[in-house]
Amino acid sequence: SISAEELGSAMKKLGYPLNKSAVRNILIKVDKDGSGQVDFDEFREFFRFVPDASLANIMNVWLDGTPIDCGSDLSPPVISPSVPWYYALFGGLGGIVSRCMTAPLEKIKLDAQTTGSRNSLVSELRNTYRTLGVRGLYAGNFANCCRVFPYAGIVTYCYLTGLKYMPTISNGDPMEPVYRGSVAALSGMTGQLVTYPIDAVRLRLTVAPERYHGILNCGLTIVREEGIRALYKGLNPTLFCVVPFLACQMITADTLKARCAINDIEVTPLRMLVIGGTAGLLAQTMVYPMDVLRRRMQAGVQTPHNSSSSKAALSEHTTVALRQIFQREGVRSLFAGIIPSYMKIFPAVAIAMTTTKTLIGVSLNYKKHGWNRA
């Protein structure tokens, strides 16, 4: 059998310096009889899907907690309380690389959401390139990347702190998914509240790059012309989006992984890509009308068809504003830009996962071969 002390010592030698609480949380996952130790049968059952039975691979499965980043700012990069802190750092870097690689699709999506444009993706990309050049395709991306680490840090801190007060942490309560989802949702809402002005500035820089000269100039211009409240336009629909988005994403991912386990299917990186992409796609579809509404509010636009008319004023109340868009522009406008949104999900997940896993692998390899010699 394996005790918590023996597990902690083994993981430390492999480059996973976890504290006693984190080791105990891992032990709970495997210790089915609650004895405080892992016997051979429990160990074999938990790791029977590991193709290469090396200790390093077993620890990677045990720690399985790197975040799935589907490229949406609604999805907080929540990590497991059992993983080292630098997993969050590498996850953030993976998110930045992912956003840089998919920035042109994000630009076209935001333009469609704020204007109701129904032009084809190729046409929009061509028009943006002709009028604004290559830089136009990446308008607002720097601000988007600047938000990754503050948002990730706030969400992760709130999530891990919140888990300490959940009963599942100490006794393996079967309600763990509900507790975990609730804490993740509250953490995501907290992250949105604190970093929302950065997202509002990012949206303005993306849809009207010729009007502003950088992040600071954009923020100051918005406050000077529209007041500080303008930095929080669309906050209500954003907060309404976070809970259903997270619930749908987490339940879908957990269900698909559970189905793989039931059918003795190994969760390979490719299957994890499919799981993460599918979860992100369903979650994005579920909240997309709210996403369109919050972008309209952030951009300060009314309706694209008659913005000069007083009748076109978009209400600040979420349900009323949704009804206005639906009545004036039809249901299609509530899904404007969804095609580029779909197109970026799987590449975003793949790029973020690959980057994160590569950085983790390099770090572990350097610890094993470089730091030991030092």
Please write out the topology.
Layout: H1 4-13, H2 20-30, H3 40-46, H4 55-63, H5 85-101, H6 103-115, H7 121-137, H8 141-163, H9 168-171, H10 176-207, H11 215-226, H12 235-262, H13 269-299, H14 318-329, H15 338-371
Helix pairs in contact: 1-2, 5-8, 5-15, 6-7, 6-13, 6-15, 8-10, 10-11, 10-12, 12-13, 13-15
Membrane topology: Multi-pass membrane protein
Solcar repeats: 86-165, 175-259, 267-362
GO molecular function, one term: calcium ion binding
Give Rg in angstroms: 23 Å
Biggest beta-sheet profile: none
CATH topology of the largest domain: Mitochondrial carrier fold
Which architecture of the largest domain per CATH?
Alpha/alpha barrel
Order of helices and strands: HHHHHHHHHHHHHHH
Highest CATH level, the class of the largest domain: Mainly Alpha
**Count of individual beta strands:** 0
**Tally of structural domains:** 2
The CATH superfamily of the largest domain bears the name Mitochondrial carrier domain
N/C terminus separation: 34 Å
Judging from the principal axes of the Cα atoms, what is the shape? elongated
Mean pLDDT: 77
In helices, the fraction of residues equals 55-70%
What count of helical segments does DSSP give? 15
**Beta-strand content estimate:** under 5%
Please state the structural category.
Answer: mainly alpha
| Uncertain stretches of 5 or more adjacent residues | 49-53, 302-311
